[in-house]
Amino acid sequence: MRPFLSALPLLALLGLGAAPANAVRANIAIQPVSRMDTPWWRQRFAEKQAEIAHGRFDVVWLGDSITQNWERNGPEAWRDFAPVWQRYYGDRHALNLGFKGDSTCHVLWRLAHGELDFRTPPRLFVVLIGANNFGHVHTDAGQTYPGVVRIVDTIHARFPSSRVLLLGVLPSIRSAWITANTRQLNRALQDDIRRGRPWLHYADVGTAVERDGAPDPSRFLDPHLTPPDPPLHPTATTQEAIARMIEPAVADALADRRH
Length: 259
What we know:
This protein is of the alpha/beta class.
């Protein structure tokens, strides 16, 4: 099965003839896009570059705010992530490359500008990306899929001996359009992305945020905020459940005991 095609121009869908070539919007999901004009992002990027230059890392988490949240320390239990990270990754030379608000295009820029400049190849990359593609970037599943593909292939091209663990985009409670595209993207990832990629492992961890097959608001931290936001980010307890779900794959990749 071929991966998704980008959305066709409306005229073509209506059978009214092809739109001019310049009317077809470029797929931003596969284009490296910088956020260096955002001060906190630029500072975090510089700090992570320094870590990469001076450290040794066996496990690299790569993604958006869900990954960045691993660095948060409470004070409330629902956002006390750091102890969970320490429990599962504290003795594994792990690095957090999560950036709030990033989509596939921003990760691609980071990978092209130093986030693969490790002194020795990491043994495992854990990739969780795509939720923001359906938000402010607003690319659909068909556009987002090749962005995810480009990320994992870029990692493998640089470090062919490393394993990549790709996590499905987590279900959220934002809009019907986002829910539909999350499901569509995850189906494509499940069905297609591992073909010809024996070094890639895919894991659907969406059940960690669900109850009876639907996202459970109590498993997200966003409703606790003031004012509350739509459920998108797992609580620390939910993220610990995700860590437990992927632990067999992590331990296997590291030839390590299960934590």
